[in-house]
Amino acid sequence: MGKYYSPEGGLPPQTHLTTERAIVKEAYTVIPKGVLTDIVTSNLPGFSNTRAWIIARPISGFATTFSQLIVEIGPGGAAPKAEFEAGVEGVVFVTKGKVNLTLGGEVHELEEGGYAYLAAGDAWGLENVSDDVVSFHWIRKAYERLEGYEAKSFVTSDAEVAPREMPNVNGVWKTTRFVDPDDLAHDMHVNIVTFQPGGVIPFPETHVMEHGLYVLEGKAMYLLNNDWVEVEAGDFMWLRAFCPQACYAGGPGEFRYLLYKDVNRQVRLTGAPLPG
After folding, report:
1. Dihedral over alpha carbons 29, 35, 40, 42 (to 10 degrees)
2. Can you name the residues that pair with 132 across neighbouring β-strands?
3. How many CB atoms within 10 Å of residue 162?
4. Which of 210, 87, 68, 89 is nearest to 139 (CA)?
5. In the prediction, which pLDDT does 2 show?
6. CA 113, CA 232: separation in Å to the nearest integer?
7. pTM across the whole model
8. Residue 9 CA neighbour count, 13 Å, CB half
9. What percent of the chain has pLDDT over 70?
10. Strand partners, 230
11. pLDDT score at 1
12. Which positions fall inside the Cupin type-2 domain (predicted)?
């Protein structure tokens, strides 16, 4: 098993209890790893030998700013053109295997922990040239352009970016930030948050950013609105804007999750363009 959790599909036996940990509420949703079976996958146009678990999409009562997919490409599978919407930006984060990313005519080999920011309007594609499946997260958002700023595509990895320690926590809470938080060209952040055993978010965060959280490693108790929910590697959480959240990482190992949030834009009340 690799460092990051990736679903393998399958189907529980008929003797399996139907009781699970899935929760759907107005303020949050929990999709546990146990429901990511074969029968809930989707095919993707333009992709061959591929299946996807769509774990977030804009619908009433759920995500409003983004979609998130767990994509699995088998050997020989490919998508010469992955993104068909010109105004949509994306992030790809590889959790298993390796895949070739073609971006601007250049080929990048993304291995486990590989990260790519794919700017709106840039053409890119993927190909699995290995003998094993590759699994990755694909987060998509309609890019909100800001006059005088333009986000640029780039490729990096979890291993290449040093996590930043949160203030006054003695190293138990760190965030791997793949873009500068002060760079207004970016209207979304997809980071990795890491807690050491015993680390906590010490207050119920209540903020305008919508969240998607996929647990990469470990387990923890997570506060979602008024409920403490136990989560583990492979679980996904969606939190609406202003949903109170906190967590307690109980160990025995690190608790890490891939975190989406929308940032750096004024609240849109009309169709007027954003000022520079």
Report:
1. 70
2. none
3. 9
4. 68
5. 75
6. 19
7. 0.97
8. 15
9. 99
10. 221
11. 56
12. 70-139, 192-258
